[in-house]
Structure formats: C-alpha cells, structure tokens
C-alpha cells in the first residue's frame, strides 16, 4: 500500500470506510490528533509576528516547534498503525498443525498484540501533547483565533480517547497482566488529566465568547 | 485554491497549520466528522455479508447508505467552510469612506456572518447524524469491530462540539437576536443528546471489552 498520509483526504477516508480492516480506529485517532496539532500550529502562526503578542512570542515559537513535531509524529503513527495491524493479522495465518506450531503461533500472537498496543499508546501520548499545547495556546495565543485553539483541544482529547480504546482491545490478547496494568494506569492518568485540560481551555474560550 | 479534500492529507494538514485563516476550526471539525462517518461505514462493511449478522443486515445496509451520504456532505462542507470564510473576510475590505458606505459595509458583514454560521451549523447537524449511526452500529454491528464504532462516536461528538464553537463565534456578529436564539437552542439540544448517545455507545463498548 502507498503511504496513507500521501493519499488524497477523500481517498484516505474511502480506505478508512472500506471493509479493509486497516486503516481503522487507530488510524482515525492518529489523523484526528494530527488535525488537533495542525490547529495548534495555526494558532501559533496567527500569534507570532504581531506586535500585540510580542511578550509571549518566544514561548509561542517553542509551542509551534512542538506542534509541528507532534503533527509529524501522528502522521507517522497513521502509517505505523496500519503496518502493525497487518503484521498482527499475519500471525493468525501461522501453521497450527502440531503442538509446537500451536504454541509458537500463540506466542507470536501475544507478542504482536503488545506491538499492536504500543502504536495506539504512542498515538495517545502524542494526542495528549497536542492537548497540552492547545490548552496553553488558548491561554496565551491570539484571542482572535481562540475557537481554533478550543477545537484543537476538543479534537486532541477525542484522539486520546479513541487511541485508548485501540490500546485496550489489544491488551486483551497479550496475556501479560503486569504489562497491561502499567499501560492502563498510564492511560487512565492521561485521560483524567485530559478531561481537566479540555475543561479549562473551554471555560476560558466560553468566557472570551460571552 | 484547488479543492481542499482533493489535497493529500499531509498537505491539507499543512494548510490547516499555516497562518492562512482558512481552512481553520470549521474545516477541522468537518474533517473529524468525515473520519467518524468513514468509521461508521467501515463497521457496516465488516458486518454486511456475514451469516452471523444476517438478521440485522437490512438495517445495516441502510445505515451504510446514510454513512456514505454523511461523509460526502462533510467533505463538501470542508470546502464550503473555507469559501464562506473567505467571502466573509472580503466584506471587511468594503469601502467605508462615507456614511452610506459604512452602513452598507456593516449590513454586508452581518449578512455574511449568518452565512458563515450556517456552514458550521450544517457541520454540527451532519456530525450529529454520524453519531446516531455510530451509536446504532455499536448496538447492532459486528462486535469484532465495536471499538471502531466507539471511535466513530467519539469523533462525531468531538466534531459537533467543534462546529458549535464555530457557529457561536459567528453569531456574535449577526446582531440578529431571534436568529441567534433559534440556532443556539438547536445546537444546545444536539449537544445534550450527543452526550447521551456517546455515553451509551461507550458503556456498551466497555461492557464488551471487559
């Protein structure tokens, strides 16, 4: 398959809609996170270079660098999610005629499930970074584009929540309780903080729009 | 500008990230809604044609038709949002040397603000339709892809919430209290129902993943 993110948006969406199991929810999550990061960059770009916001410009420039990096990571994760899903599915096609083959196949599936969990986990972490950027930009960015910052926060948290479902479905197959527990604890923490960050950003936006 | 949705995803995201004010939050909302609709189609396509789900197949086929239609509408709205924003900005460049010019300019801005509110309002309505589809598919679709249905629900509600901010910022400029009141009442109703639909879909998904 050619690179998913090099496809026209209309064609990527058609691929997502098709019965091909990848791209799926993980790719959709990464793309939503990339939309959030792009909106964070936009707020930076419409803040930098304006005399009114000169005081916060050094910080906004740093936020822009990070937003660009987060967007590129999420674009790479769209590809990774499809790749890892396809390798995961390949494990199910391993031979299972003998007992030795059966146990090798099960071990391969469990190991692939961990790899398949790691990609949406990375999507969750990157989306959380996008959310932190959005929240800060709602506070210090150009208030003329505060709703774009609010949209960035909403989409970043949505991407994180979608990614969490895609991690969780893979954890069911790892059979590694310790690993699963650590990953789920990290995600629960991100989800909890994300709720607060989004609420803060939207409360400020609502106040400005009043 | 060439059609935004015909651009490569990576280039659309770069355009969103740039200092060009369109595409902005409205386009991001419509694209997130299109991701949600595409995931709803995917769940349909992985349910239809499987003997196990034969009983619900007629309904799922109808849901697929609607999901395809909603995705196409949202793709068109990505373009509309940028177009209407650009016409809106053009009003600010109208002459304002005489009193007559001044009042003609203000009338043009107010009328353009209504048009600029109508597009994200349409994005909100289409995203809500995507959410209704996602919720139903979580209930009757192939449970093997229930997390894709959950992601569809999360992204659809996020798109609706983003669209609402983009309507609201334009309502501030219409100076038409009756119009604003009607639109805001409709949106508040969609937002309230959306919260319940999403919560229902995720509660069911959580139960299946347990």
Secondary-structure blueprint of this entry?
2 copies of one chain form a homodimer.
Chain A: H1 9-17, H2 25-45, H3 57-91, H4 99-140, H5 146-171, H6 177-209
Describe the structure.
Two copies of one chain form a homodimer. The first copy, chain A, has 210 residues and is mainly alpha-helical. Helix content of chain A is 79%, strand content 0%. The first copy, chain A, has six helices and no strands. Chain A has helices at 9-17, 25-45, 57-91, 99-140, 146-171, 177-209. The radius of gyration of chain A is 20 Å and the shape is elongated. In chain A, 51% of the residues are buried. The model of chain A has no long low-confidence stretch (mean pLDDT 96).
Shape of chain A: elongated
Cα gyration radius of chain A (Å): 20 Å
Give the termini separation of chain A: 48 Å
Helical fraction of chain A equals over 70%
Summing up helix and strand content along with how strands pair, one would put the structural category of chain A as mainly alpha
Low-confidence region ranges of chain A: none
**What is the residue-averaged pLDDT of chain A?**
96
H/I helix tally of chain A = 6
- Strand and helix order of chain A: HHHHHH
Count every beta strand of chain A, where a strand is a DSSP E run of 2 or more residues: 0
Largest sheet of chain A: none
Assembly annotation: homodimer
Q: Please give the most extensive interface between any two protein chains, plus how many residues each contributes.
A: A-B, 55 and 55 residues
Strand content of chain A is: under 5%
């Amino acid at each position: 398959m050619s690179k998913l993110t090099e496809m026209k948006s209309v064609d990527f969406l058609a691929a997502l809609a098709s019965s091909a199991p990848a791209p799926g929810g993980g790719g959709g999550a990464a793309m939503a996170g990339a939309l959030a990061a792009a909106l964070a960059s936009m707020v930076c770009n419409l803040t930098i270079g304006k005399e009114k916001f000169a005081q916060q410009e050094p910080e906004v420039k740093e936020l822009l660098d990070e937003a660009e990096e987060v967007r590129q990571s999420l674009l790479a994760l769209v590809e990774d999610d499809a790749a890892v899903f396809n390798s995961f599915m390949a494990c199910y096609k391993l031979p299972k005629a003998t007992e030795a083959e059966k146990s090798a196949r099960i071990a391969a599936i469990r190991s692939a499930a961990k790899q398949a969990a790691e990609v949406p986990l990375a999507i969750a972490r990157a989306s959380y970074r996008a959310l932190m950027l959005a929240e800060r930009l709602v506070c210090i960015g150009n208030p003329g584009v505060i709703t774009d910052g609010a949209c960035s926060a909403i989409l970043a948290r949505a991407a994180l929540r979608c990614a969490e479902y895609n991690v969780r479905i893979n954890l069911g197959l790892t059979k590694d309780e310790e690993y699963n527990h650590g990953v789920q604890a990290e995600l629960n923490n991100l989800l909890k903080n994300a709720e607060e960050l989004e609420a803060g950003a939207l409360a400020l936006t609502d106040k400005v729009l009043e």
